[in-house]
Amino acid sequence: MIKIYCKPCQFSVIALNTNKFYQILINRIKNYSFVLLGFSIPISISLTYIILFLLLALFVLDRDYQKIKFLKKEKWLLALLLIFVLYILGSIDGQFSSNTKEVFKRLSVWLFLPIFFLMDLKKESYSKGIFAFLTSVFFMVIMSVFNQFGLTAHIFEYLPFLFKSSQLLELYPSTHLYNYHNVLISFSLIICFYLAKKLAGPKIYLLILFIILLVFSLFSEAGRAGQIVFILFLTFYSIDLAIKKKRESIYMIFFLIVTILISYNHSPNFNYRVNELVLKFQSAEKNNDHRYNFWKSTLNKICEKPAKNLIGHGTGSWRSEMNESFDYFNSIDENHITPHNNYLYILFEIGILGFIALSYFFYTMYYKLKTKAHEFFSRNLVVSYTALMLFDSYMVIFIISIAYIYLFIISVYYE
To answer: What is the pLDDT of residues 58-99, one digit of tens each?
Structure first.
């Protein structure tokens, strides 16, 4: 008869080693995926979705839910939760809710903000994430520049799975719609000006060339939102340097003025945008502008029922309410489901409470970056995003929201 001796301690060691290997594997894939996300955002929405779902799965598999207690200290989380609660209540209360599902689908990207906060990533993953993002923006901009000179038409024809068709080249200078393209460039320029303070030697010259390339692409394309963000950033940066009595403020002011003058005289798109804006302010032509009419109609509707302003008209109700109240909306493309102003959009659909929650949300994010060495630049990222929301509902635009969330997380943890 053969006797079998059980050794529980051996099984415990094997289980411990297996669990350790499993944890190392999860962490390694998680760090690689986070860096890859930075590369995917400027070039592919589909790839960005895939990586986000992978990161979500890794977060669940990690099973380290003890970290959730650290979120209690984050004041922005309370504001974010309140925004979602108000949207949920608005979906029940609203008279018109034709776009409710679409609103929740677009807002869902913001759930990755607390998930990214809870992810225990290596510090080097944040610096690699910046490099991956800027590298991808470089390829995006190169594609845009080639497109301007008519060098990429055949690529758009033969690679429709990656790029848009050649019929849409004017709207899609690279991999994203022209205004999103320029917003991503403006975010990249803020990062580049911060890196310029840290780099020296040959690297600084390469960075300067990269900045020039980004500025060229920014002002030669039609997206004015990104141009406004960059002009505001350089203005604030010049003022900040002047307050600190640094000579670089003169260089920044000179660079800004020269950039605007050259762009106005040599970029048809920028020249047209500036002249168009001046003309609208000087004449009645602004009445024919969709954005102006959206804002005016939304404000009229808000003032029409003051009693509803506390909780709003309901989630996803804006377009239905506009169609019901204003005849000219029935001739406007149904894809316009927001008033192209995030603050008016929030105020209309979830009321004053939603507006307060939104304001507090971004204030706490701004305050979160107070102690960082790169405080001015990272805070300008928050300021830029909140400024963008004056011109469109960027909080429900996926690619810009995830770019902001990604760069904000890096700003929090990057040293």
So the answer is: 988 877 666 777 787 889 999 999 999 999 998 886 565 678
Q: State the DSSP H helix or E strand holding residue 380, giving kind and residue range, or none if neither.
A: helix 375-388
CA distances from residue 315 to 91, 104, 107, 294 in whole angstroms, order as listed: 5, 9, 11, 17
Residue carrying structure tokens 């509803």: 308
pTM: 0.89
Task: Report yes or no: 388 and 96 within 8 Å, Cβ to Cβ.
Answer: no
**DSSP code, position 309:** G
Taken in order 177, 144, 231, 276, is the CA torsion positive or negative? Answer: negative
Q: How far is CA 71 from CA 49, 68, 113, 114, 163, in A?
A: 25, 5, 11, 8, 39
> End-to-end alpha-carbon separation of the chain, Å?
66
Distance of CA 372 to the CA centre of its chain: 21
Cα 189 from Cα 193, distance rounded (Å): 6
Instruction: Please check the confidence at residue 375 and state whether its pLDDT lies above 80.
Output: no
Q: What does the pLDDT average to over 18-39? A: 89
Cα–Cα distance, 322 to 82 (Å, whole number): 26
Residue 264 — pLDDT band, cuts 50, 70, 90?
A: very high
Q: Phi-psi category of 141—alpha, beta or left, where left has phi over 0 and alpha has psi -120 to 50? A: alpha
| Strand ranges, E, within 225-278 | none
Spatial CA neighbour of 192 closest among 225, 214, 219 = 214
Structure-block tokens of residue 290: 């969709």
Of the listed ranges 75-79, 239-243, 331-335, 348-352, the one predicted with least confidence: 331-335
